[in-house]
Amino acid sequence: MTTISEFLVPDHKNCDKLFADAESAVSLGEWDKAAMIFNDFRAALLHHFDMEEVVMFPAFEAGTGMKGGPTEVMRAEHRQMIVLLNLMPDALLHKKMNAYLGDADTLLILLQQHNIKEEQMLYQMADQVLSKESEALVERMRAVA
């Protein structure tokens, strides 16, 4: 049986790798490659957010009765990161290395802090509260388009 942590933590790692690869390509001035990788990263991260917000967070809230707790904090952090995700393509398009790398540094800090909170707190709590339905929840998250 796959736990929520076992499913979502590797997805964090996948997003992290794509993000690092995009930043590396920008640093090397490989703008077309950077744009392609960034688009893959952006799609993967938004998909990750959707899996959490559409499936896992509502199940966690129903299971715990907490509506304004950790899931609300995570949603707010998702929104913060989306603002940066929406700014960064312009820097790529116009080959503004400093602008891209500055936004990337900010996003990296937000992502690292966010992932630690999810991996060390929220996912652990979800694994406990939702243990009986974790397999079904993982399947529902896999089905998120």
In short:
The chain has 145 residues and is an all-alpha fold.
What report would you give on this structure?
The chain is mainly α and 145 residues long. The protein has one domain. 86% of the residues lie in helices and 0% in strands. It contains five helices and no strands. The relative contact order is 0.18.
| Unreliable residue runs | none
Q: What count of structural domains?
A: 1
Number of helices in the DSSP assignment = 5
Secondary structure tally: strands? 0
Strand content: under 5%
String of helices and strands: HHHHH
- Rg over C-alpha atoms, rounded to the nearest angstrom: 16 Å
Structural class: mainly alpha
* Integer average pLDDT: 96
General shape: elongated
The biggest beta sheet reads: none
Quaternary state reads: single chain
Distance separating the two termini:
23 Å
The helix fraction, in percent, is: over 70%
Tag the structure with descriptive keywords:
86% helix; 145 residues
Topology:
Blueprint: H1 4-27, H2 31-64, H3 70-93, H4 97-129, H5 134-142
